[in-house]
Amino acid sequence: MSEVAAVTFNLKQVRSKLAGRKRADRLYVLVGLSATVLGMITLGALIGSLVIDGSERFSYEFFTNFPSRFPARAGILSAWVGSLLILVVTALIGIPLGVASGIYLEEYAPKNIFTSIIEINVNNLAGVPSIVFGLLALGLFVYVFGLGKSILTGGLTLALLILPVIIVATREAVRAIPPSIREAAYAVGATKWQMIYDHVLPYASAGVLTGTIIGLGRALGETAPLITIGALTFIAYLPAAPLQLEWPFLNFEWLLAGFTVLPIQTYNWTSRPEPAFQANAAAAAFTLLMTTLTINLTAIIFRYRLRRRIKW
Amino acid sequence: MAAASAAKPPRRRVTHKLSERIIEWLLFLAAASSVAVTVGIVYVLVFESYVFFEYLWKEGRLTEFFTHTRWTPAFDDAEYGILPLLNGTILIAGIALLIAVPFGLTTAIYISEFAGPRAREVIKPIMEILSDVPTVVYGYFAFLFVTPLLKATLFPDISAFNALSAGLVMGIMIIPYVASVSEDAMRAVPMSLREGSFAMGATRLETAIRVVFPAAISGVLAAFILGISRAVGETMIVKIAAGSQPVMTLDPTESAATITAFIVAISHGDLPYGSLAYLSIYAAGLTLFVMTLSFNLIAFFIRKRYREIYE
User: Fold this and answer.
1) Distance between CA B107 and CA A163 in Å, rounded?
2) Nearest Cα residue to A91 out of A208, A201, A212, A204
3) DSSP reduced 3-state for A229
4) CB–CB of B241/B165 below 8 Å?
5) Please, which of A25, A81, B207, B241 could form a disulfide with B197 given CB 3.0 to 4.6 Å?
6) Class of A59-309 per CATH?
7) Is B88:B258 a contact under the CB 8 Å cutoff?
8) Crossing angle between the packed helical segments A77-103 and A151-175, to the nearest 10 degrees
């Protein structure tokens, strides 16, 4: 009798302990979601405060006016044009360089010490703080190469900054293509480059594009390296238009023009003591945030659809 | 290379062969250009810092850089003690980690061990968006939302520029990074280990804490260290919300300047090329570069050396 009683008693204990362990397990789901919730609250508060602080400044003129001493008349024309031109330069330099590096490392690179140096180097470059790229640009591009505090210098700096992002994206996209595709191309007599150009590149293009969009989104939000190279905070003119009516129709003067960008304009207004300018800062920050989020959402959706479509 | 030499093309395709080699060289040059960037960074930092330290050495003030507690390169009676900048950098990075490590780790365990595929598809993009917000926007948020909030609630005496709000917001910014690197490490732990634990009657939480976490410890540690490296290199949040007054204090409600904030603050004015103030940003930059590089190398080393290899 007593033995049975002891067993039932233990069973009760075991059961309650088990229930406790299971409860802790279920409770953790809530805890685990906390960080996500914290992030969502932050994002909500962030967007909310920008909208509330900046709503009075949202108007058509805000996008078509130059900065001004008078907060109510100040706009972000030179800032968004500057950002756009910088991104064009960044893309034109960063994409070819990054894609070519990625293809070399995946398709050509022999297994030797040079290749490992390049690989380790790309990893390390991704961890270098962005402001250090600014110091590189200031010391080398601005003063030694004599490119000045120009759009070209800014674009070049950001291109180097996002180079690791594009290289890694290219490598992943190329690596995902099965060897059978390559063998099929060789089997019908293609040379290596023909195989890469006609098969590897087209199949990898979607993945490369996703990585590139993410990289450019990051470049758009970068502030510190551009301040370091001496981008101006007050610019009340636009660089010469890249297109013109006379021969040769293209004009490259804008490359050497001074510039400001949206993040720098935001930063400048944020640091002003007058609250009226802080409203401008909120409106500019909101514009910047929405543009970046749109770019990154495009990339996320793109990647999501890509993952569903391709089945080798 | 091996594949190219194995397949012998017909003789009449000599031009093809030549263009193939040219293309290979061009691609190699592109890949090598990333090495050139690193060389350029190291060259510029070391060269300009060398000129800076040479000047200090000639004046017999070299030790000042490591021991003095004032950093005022822009003043007439300039002093060059890096300690207050290091103090600010470590203080703010420390606050950021106090936020990023617990929340990042919790998220990582949740995503890797608890969340189903659908929850994962929701959480990961949110995390990604959080890390895509431009830092200048986070700076605005810290300066004009978090600081007033802290002043109104917990710290009535907090100064307009303070280390606390910069550190808190930076911590939130780094959560996704710490989470994704730790999650990668945990997902790499083979399923058989979890199944063994479940078979013994452990719950998911117990399995996560006692089996998966210890097995992934090297990756998780690497995630923390990479998080530190991120925090140390972050610029705009600190510059906007914590100010650029280098002071030796551990009080988070006071203003503090980091290495990065100093570089940005002094770059505002047109720095005369070759002046001592100009050179001083390179000395500060070199210090920063050495710090982040060592953190990244330590993380790399930990991941490589202490990874448990299964099967």
Assistant:
1) 29
2) A212
3) coil
4) yes
5) B207
6) mainly alpha
7) yes
8) 40
Probe site for chain A from B136, B234, B235, B280 (most A CB atoms < 10 A): B136
Under the banding of pLDDT at 50, 70 and 90, the label for residue B199 is very high
Of B3, B107, B115, the CB nearest to A35: B107
Contact yes or no for A129/B232 (Cβ under 8 A): yes
One-letter amino acid of A208: V
List pLDDT tens digits, range B264-309.
888 776 677 777 778 888 888 999 999 998 988 888 888 777 666 6
d(CA A160, CA B36): 11
CA–CA separation, B201 and B206 (whole Å): 10
| Inter-chain residue contact A108 with B144, CB threshold 8 Å | no
Q: Which of B34, B24, B13 is nearest to A107 (CA)?
A: B24
**pLDDT confidence of residue A93:** 92
Domains of chain B with CATH codes: 83-116+123-305 (1.10.3720.10)
User: What are the boundaries of each domain within chain A?
Assistant: 2-55, 59-309
Least confident of A185-194, A223-232, A249-258, B205-214: A249-258
pLDDT value, residue B2: 46
Instruction: Judge: B136–A53 Cβ closer than 8 Å, yes or no.
Output: no
| Tokens representing residue A194 in the block | 């023909």
The pLDDT tens digits of the residues spanning B235-263 come to 889 888 887 777 777 777 777 888 888 88
* pLDDT computed for residue B58 by the predictor: 80
Kindly report the nearest CA distance between residue A255 and chain B, in angstroms. 21
Pick the range with the lowest mean pLDDT from A40-49, A289-298, B75-84: B75-84
Peptide bond into A248 cis (omega under 30): yes
Token representation of residue B3: 């594949």
pLDDT category of residue A167 using cuts at 50, 70 and 90: very high
Gap from B124 CA to chain A (nearest CA, Å)? 9
Dist. CA A87–CA A166, nearest whole Å: 14
The CA–CA distances, whole Å, from B32 to A92, A112, A117, A120, B44 equal 18, 14, 9, 12, 18
- Mean predicted lDDT score pLDDT of chain A: 83
